[in-house]
Amino acid sequence: MRKRRPRRILRWGLKFLLVLLILSILPILSLRYVNPPFTAMMAYSWVENWGNARNYMQRNMWRQLKEISPHLRRAVLAGEDQRFLSHHGFDFIEMNQALKEMFSRKGTRGASTITMQTARTVFLCTERTWARKAVEAYCTLLMELFWSKERILEIYLNTVDWGEGIMGAEAASRKYFHTPSSRITRTQAALLTAILPSPHRWSPTNPNTRVLRRQARILKDMVKMPLLS
């Protein structure tokens, strides 16, 4: 009996891990075909702004990738993840550069890809811990495995935080420029993308010097970006 007990524990342990694996894959696999009704970031915002939750829900308006301005699609790639099509969720070139700058004390810079940002927004809380980073990496791998690059970009553009209570490209376009995301101009797209590192402090309608510098660089790099549709 004693010899059988470790085997039984091992079997149950393997079954438990298999169940966890299936449960973690199913939500990501389903979002390949179904638009997420809400995200972890939206849920967090609703809890923080309970009295105004309905307003938060209404200001997220889903648009298919082809319905979003090609200027905004290119601007986001230029500003957030220029190697989006060539990596598999992790941009090791950008990570290496970020580490070099950190160790040389030139400041810190983000090295998150669009896939990583999407994983964080859709599935995870805002708490910054090593455990969350590990889960983020796991979700990133699964998203790159089950979703196309077009689907990743579509979900990113519809769920990214663009300011207080503003989730997604359509809501941001209407809030800041009073126009649908399909009609955003090249200049407006670059401004919207320029504030993404700090959307709660920066504004595309009242840009500071740093935002304008980012806009100029994004406009320059947009011509090199592919058009995903």
Describe the protein.
With 229 residues, the chain is an all-alpha fold. It folds into 2 domains: 1-30; 37-222, Biosynthetic peptidoglycan transglycosylase-like (Penicillin binding protein transpeptidase fold). The chain is 59% helix and 0% strand. The chain contains 11 helices and no strands. The chain has helices at residues 4-30, 40-48, 53-58, 70-80, 92-103, 114-123, 130-146, 149-159, 169-177, 186-194, 209-222. The longest helix is centred in the N-terminal third of the chain and has 27 residues, at 4-30. The chain is globular and about 70 Å long. The protein starts with a helix and ends in a 7-residue tail after the last helix.
How is this fold's topology laid out?
Elements: H1 4-30, H2 40-48, H3 53-58, H4 70-80, H5 92-103, H6 114-123, H7 130-146, H8 149-159, H9 169-177, H10 186-194, H11 209-222
Helix pairs in contact: 1-7, 4-10, 4-11, 6-7, 6-8, 10-11
Alpha plus pi helix count: 11
Shape: globular
Relative strand content: under 5%
CATH C-level of the largest domain: Mainly Alpha
- Report the strand count: 0
What are the salient characteristics of this protein?
Penicillin binding protein transpeptidase fold; 2 domains; 11 helices; single chain; 229 residues; mainly alpha; 59% helix
